[in-house]
Amino acid sequence: MSEPTVADTRRLNSKPQDLTDAYGPPSNFLEIDVYDPQTIGVGRNRFTTYEVRMRTNLPIFKLKESCVRRRYSDFEWLKNELERDSKIVVPPLPGKALKRQLPFRGDEGIFEESFIEERRAGLEQFINRIAGHPLAQNERCLHIFLQEESIDRNYIPGKVRQ
Amino acid sequence: MSFFGFGQTAEIDIVLNDAETRKKAEHKTEDGKKDKYFLFYDGETVSGKVNVTLKIPGKRLEHYGIKIEFVGQIELYYDRGNHHEFVSLVKDLARPGELSQSQTFDFEFTHVEKPYESYTGQNVKLRYFLRATISRRLNDISKEMDIVVQTLCSYPELNSSIKMEVGIEDCLHIEFEYNKSKYHLRDVIVGKIYFLLVRIKIKHMEIDIIKRETTGTGPSVYHENDTIAKYEIMDGAPVRGESIPIRLFLAGYELTPTMRDINKKFSVRYYLNLVLIDEEERRYFKQQEITLWRKGDIVRRSMSQQATIAAQRFEGSNSESASASAQAKEENN
Q1: CATH class given for the domain over A26-147
Q2: CB < 8 Å to A9, chain B
Q3: Stretch B123-136: mean pLDDT
Q4: Is residue B308 assigned to a domain?
Q5: Which helix (H) or strand (E) holds A124?
Q6: What ipTM did this prediction achieve?
Q7: Interface of A with B in 68-107 (CB under 8 A)
């Protein structure tokens, strides 16, 4: 039997790509911005909220555009729900900064501008990392967090289907 | 593995008859160094001479026998005491007596069966060696000479391509294809990845070659995985309908043939691991086993030394080489 001495390295045949697929919008569009921190209230009862705006074309999300206001404890709620119900390794949140909440500080503590900016960036990274995870996208808590005006803490946990 | 005791009265060494002409092959030792050893194939005769040199002239060497053994054995590192010998041949060179002067003994192990390839791995070693021993009352004098055995195959009759559609529901669907399921050690993996649905943000894609060495049986099976190669095949985000080619040359990597359940002691198997990495460093992968086999060198028509020997190798013992290729066929299926 004559054996070939040089291997055939020609490319395998493949279907030509449809031009609308090649040049159309990608199917993985997902952008979440965390911005516009606003500190609400006075004195000891102040807290900061952030605007969470999402734009997407993923079919699993009911709304292609949504805009809600969330505070740090809402992010903590989401992290806990996902840690309990989903199989994903939930990324860390920016710190709780308990030291900043002690009295007799020279600065504004957790309402210090630089701290808020640091926290904003960390929250943005956190939510983008989670929302892009295929397993987290199925969790109802994520959809509530991103797309419902207020978070119903008594919701029934479960999965979302397409 | 040679000299014990205080002050040797004699030295023993082994020389092959075809030491000048026989090819040597590089083989990794347990500590990672590469050494050259004489290369043998299944069915070849192992013949040579054992030289016993008396160190102290005039002093006689009393002994209980001189012999030479050809051994093929499997050593499991976690069980060093037990060597599993699958080939064990002995030739007596001298009956118990006395040597008054240095002497040379001829030996020949005719058409020796060498069913498996030499292998030095993470947890197991398969080796062949000659061992010449002078038995004595207190301490034996012995010398070992390792050889390397390679098992050759020819192109398998059946070598289908691997083609599969995999993915995560509603997130990522791909169809991957590799042109063969059995590759020789200097072959090229030609394939493609076709994207059917991309709803995640892929950053790049690579193909890894994983070697898995399995030792032990039953409840105490142990797998040792080693990534032999990582080869990036795509940088950037693909969309639906895109086809990414794969061309991976195996000759550049340290590979052995696939070894399945060798003497029921160990296996060495190879897998292609297709890995997609997204923007958040999440990894999506699909592993697929491939069979690797060793192709013999092409015998040229010119009458070089090698050609003569190679011709002898296949003509020398019809029964042995037939059983070798039959076993090779079985391992490929």
Answers
A1: alpha beta
A2: 188, 190, 247
A3: 95
A4: no
A5: helix A113-131
A6: 0.85
A7: none
